[in-house]
Amino acid sequence: MNKKKAGAGNWLWRIGLFVWALTVLIPVLWIVNVSLKTNREFYQSVWALPEIPQFTNYIESWISMDLSQAFLNTVIYVGCSMVIRLIFTMMVSYSLTRVKFRGRKTLMWLIMLSLFLPGVNALVPTYVLMNKLHLLNSITGLTILSSVGINAFSVMVLNGFLSSIPYEMEESAYMDGAGYFRTMIQIIMPMAKPGLVTVFVFSFLNLYNNFLWPFVMLGDPKKYTIAVKLYEINQLMMYKSNWVGLCSCIVIGMLPSVIFYILLQKQVKRGVTVGALKG
Amino acid sequence: MKMKKLACMLLALTMAVGLFTGCGSEKDSGDTGKQDSQNDSSQDAPKDNTGDTNTPEESQNSGDDTYPNGLSKTEPVVLKLGIADQGNGTAQFDAALKLFQSMYPNVEIETTISADIETIVDTKINAGDDDDMFDLFWSYSRNPELIAAGALEPCEDIWDYEFNDTPGTKIRDLAPAGLVDATYYPGWPDGKEHVAIFPAMGTNYYGFFYNKALFEEKGWNQDPQTWQEFLDLCAAIKKDDVVPLISTGVYSYYLTYSLVLPKSFELAHEAGDIDAFTESFQNYGNDFYNNTYLTETWNKIGELGKLGYWHTGLAGMNHTQAQMQVLQGKAAMVASGTWIGNEMADSIPEGFEWGYMMIPFRETKDTPIYIGPAFANAGLVIWANKPETNKAWCKEFLRLMCDMSVQEGAAEGGGIPYIRTDFADNAEGMGLLHESARVSLRYIADHECISLAEKYKSIPSGASLAQAQQNYSENYVGMMMNEVNPETVLTECQALLDKAREGN
Amino acid sequence: MRKGKKLEKRKLGFLLVTLVPAFVFYIIFTLYPNLMSAYYSLLEWNGIADPKFIGLKNFITLLTDDFVWRGLLHNLLIMIVTVPITILLALLLAFALTNTRFRENKFYQALFYMPNIMPILVVALLWSFIYDGDMGLLNGLLHLVTDNFSGKYWLADKSTALICIMIPMIWCNVGFHMIIYINAITAIPDSLYEVATLEGATMRQKMWHVTVPLIRETLITSATFLILNAFGNFEIVMLMTNGGPGGATNTLSLYMYHLAFGGKNEGITSHMYGYSSAVGIVLTILLIIIRFLMEKFSSREAVQY
Fold first, then answer.
1. Which of A77, A105, A141, C175 has the largest CB neighbor count within 10 A?
2. Does C277 touch chain B if contact means CB atoms closer than 8 Å?
3. What is the ipTM of this complex?
4. How far apart (Å, rounded) are the C-alpha atoms in residues B431 and B151?
């Protein structure tokens, strides 16, 4: 990109990045460190290194929290929800940003309204609704609740990306006789790849860490997702001070997120090169 | 390129697994869940029946359609249980479930066990669907409201049930002194007192816990009898460069039940004013906050702060962090409950021995020491709007929880203190009990403490009540540290409460 | 003419397919439950006993409730401090990662994302230990410079507690917004930067004159999220201080949560769904006003371009 590098300025950027990296790295290492200790060691000194790293902590946590089942549930729940949510987001966002019609702004406000609503108060009415629809205590029900409809965050993020694409793009497509659906899927969406990836990362985080509603809606521990399991072990911490177990669960729970992010982020780069070539 | 392929494959896999496995098979897994619990019971049944004392009786009655308890053998029943997984674990519950299922195969039990069962219970209650509601569930802070609305089933009749393992002996006959009375609640719609929480889950108490070994080493007084003796103890501890007292500043209820509530009653008792005080307390009266005894209680707590006896960092510590200070020997005593030994079991350093005391606020030894019970506010309750059969089976379940084998399981698995006195004679059983529970039960018995349960006859409904409660709990640390004048706080709270009493 | 009509028809068809199902489900699963909770705000209801319709009484009570106003003040302070700092930090990091080619950048990009995926309890716990007076990292670091703060419990002090809970809020959010910015920046055609470089622009100039204007839309969206977060996020406060010491960190949403679900055995023991919903309505209205002002403000900016 920039071939010429200003020496001193560059070093400042580098140091800045390094300092921020430290503020993140220390806590992450701390959690890994705790996860390898015994509880007794943890209580004697919170910051010290373990005498002998207890790798068995991970196995114990995996078995005692029944994480295999939880992982399977999470894959089903997060996988289904992400795909459905992305389809809805794509359609809504495209129509609201790239198709001109009256009432767009009103619809956008209607969507944004949900961001301003304090969700906790809606927990009980939502539970009543799900109960009436016989969708309680099932992952299908939970998937429907969290994916069908409109997710305002996703729509807003994608809107930001879509609105930066020049309008000439689809005008020429329409000229060529392409329909709306084809234009959306074949012309615009590939260009909005960074946006779609951002939405995907966001949805993944949001769904993967979603605990309160799944916790209340599911009821049966066999259907719990990773986030609910983590919430359970967090809550258990109120009564049983097993920090080591918690931290080992967290390390396990964080791994898929990190891997998922790294893999997806690769897609952004590619999206841009494709876009640049076409542009 | 490789990464790209991998990412695509991952996504495709996620989708495929999600779409096909998930949405399709998921309903089935719901059903399997139910079947599993049935299978469990039928598998367990033959194993356990051999050791079960009741089986001979049952087989004598075979041919009849009913069990000895009068409930049907053939009618299939499904009970929904909501159980808390807390400091004491679920050992007692597991043992009772096993026993129950071996005895009554026609009763199917669906359980939800969670460390945060109250959020689930709350949502179910508010949703208002009696079918979806638990039959038997763990409940605590909401009990006064539930009782006032008549939503809970009175279960004092369980006290007159006979033990499953010792027929002929009523549960009431073996209850520790004062326990039966402590379980009766006022405030029911019929104006009478009933039992809402049957304390089958054991008898936990709040109080102050310390390291006995450290006290012995330093020669500190482990049994102060009066307020003055307690002050002397704190002075001695402080002299040795240890902070005498700590309690979590984040969760004020630890201090409420360890000190504030029982001590205000103790002072009222000393002044011979206990009846009037109780009456005002239970009705959120016009001197609920603004009364001599509560003020005096807070003055004494503030005095401890003034003398530098409270840990100065407690405002930002949760209960675990506060308890840690005692384990590490930085603070001498922590406000907690009998479950502390179990809660901290994995972290106790070598040479640490649990000790328990209740801080006396009395001036002389002539009046009793009051303590705060945890079992009176929290425990298993039965939902009233359920079929009679279901409720009867719930009571049967609670009866089985009093069995010696279940109580032993509870003591071993979770350090839960017993509810039957013959357990104390049972040296083996006592050996299973955690040290922190043992020392506190011994202290309570030796000092003939009076356990003071928080009970309300009527609760004001106005939103100002929330403001009064908020204002009160917020000022806890300030009052402890002697930074805020208790009289001012209590007067403010009373003014807000008075507004609530007028319906605002 | 006929072609235009046909196009209109296709457009209508497209809009019906893409928008109608989405909005129908949105209304059922998102708006309807919230409308119900708006109805609760007119009730005196503890969730158990029969609800009593009391009209606007909850809103009148709310006006004289000091805890509501104090909570609001704390939220505003959190917003004023955390939102600009988070945006600035995230922008700097995103810009640095996309415009420099240090070997460690790839690693950083994954690393900086990690605070987002840590469960909130761990974040709370971690920072509680950092602020601890006895064994905290902060005091350890300060000890190298001065002895004035030894043994200071940062979260236990009314004057420092609020600022102390803002720092983890910033720390948690920077990574996520950084990702949004990075993706937005990579969507900017490289040619624009090349032009700037040819014109001899410095890094700073490139950032303010090329990057920021081009990702304006994204910045506004992310500012909206951050403001919402500053008002809505109560978990970290609940876990670190539970609103203490002496209410110094109690926010409106935490107060609302305690009103609805009770303080779990302490503080507010009665459940007040009606009153809590009324507080929620006020919060909603306030957030809509803020968003409205932002829109006004940002569109004026746009005209200047």
1. A77
2. no
3. 0.85
4. 39
